[in-house]
Amino acid sequence: MPLLFEEIDSQASALGEISLRRRRMPAFGDRDIYEVKLGDEFLMSSMFVDAEEALSTLGLAATQGDTLSVVVGGLGLGYTAVAALKDTRISELLVVDALNTVIGWHKDELVPLGKILNADARNRYVLGSFFELATAPSTGFDPQCAGKKFDAILLDIDHSPTEFLNPANAGFYTTENLALMAAQLKPNGVFAMWSQNLPEPSFEALLQTVFKSVTSHVVSFYNPFQNGESTNSVYVCVKTE
C-alpha cells in the first residue's frame, strides 16, 4: 500500500528550510500530490495548477512570432514551464530559479515533470535571482548571451504584487524596475505574471506606466478543500514597439 505521506527532500536555503513532500488523499482520488513548503508556508501544490498553466497559455497567446524565446521566472513544480513547451513556436525556454535545490529536484526527477523538462532540448535551467537578472538588461537572463532579448517573460514567484515570497522582492514592483525588465523584451514582447489574488487596480495602473496594453484575467478552478470555486489571476502586458 502506498504511503499516505512522505517527505522526499528537505534542505536549507537562503530563504529558510525548503522541503518537497508527496501525499495521497484517498478522498480526492488515488493520485500522488506533490507539495513544496518554505518553512511552515506552503508554496505550491500539484493539486492546484490551473492558474500556473494559464500563465503560459494566456501569456503566449498574446505573443507574436513563429520562433519564440521565452523566460519563465520561478520553477516551482514545473507546471508553467511544461505548459509553455506545449506551444510549438517556442525555440528556447529559460527557466530561472534562485534555489539550486528546486532545480536539483527537476534534474534528478524527484518531481514528475522533471522528466519532461529534462527530455526537451528547448528547456534550460538558469540558477539565479529573477529580480536581479530582470533589472540588469546589459547582462540579462541568458548567461550564454549577454543582453539577449526575449519574446515573452512569464513570472510566478511572489504570492501577489503586494505579498512577497521574500521582502527584498518588493523593490521590483516600480516603474523603473519594470521598465528595466521590459527592455529585455523584443518589440511587442509580452510580460505575464501570476497572482493568488484577484486583479489589483493599483498594480494594473503601475503596469500601464510601462506597457501599452494591460489585460487582467481571472482563472477559476475547483477547490476540493472548500468544495467550491477558487480564483487566481494572470496579468498579461504587451510592450510598445
Gyration radius, to the nearest Å?
Answer: 17 Å
Which CATH top level class of the largest domain fits? Alpha Beta
The CATH architecture assignment of the largest domain turns out to be 3-Layer(aba) Sandwich
CATH topology of the largest domain: Rossmann fold
Element-by-element helix/strand order: EEEEHEHEHHEHEHEHEE
Task: Name the poorly predicted regions.
Answer: none
How many domain modules? 2
Number of H/I helices: 7
CATH superfamily of the largest domain: Vaccinia Virus protein VP39
Question: Structural class of the helices, strands and pairings?
Answer: alpha/beta
Beta percentage is 25-35%
In short:
The protein is globular.
Structure description:
- Helix content is 22%, strand content 34%.
- The strands form 2 sheets. It has a 7-stranded mixed sheet with strand order 7-6-5-8-9-11-10. A 4-stranded antiparallel sheet has the order 1-2-3-4, with no helix packed on it.
- By secondary structure, the protein is an alpha/beta fold.
- Strand 10 and strand 11 (228-238) form a beta hairpin.
- It has 7 helices and 11 strands.
- The protein folds into 2 domains: 5-44, no CATH class; 48-238, 3-Layer(aba) Sandwich (Rossmann fold).
- The chain starts with a strand and ends with a strand.
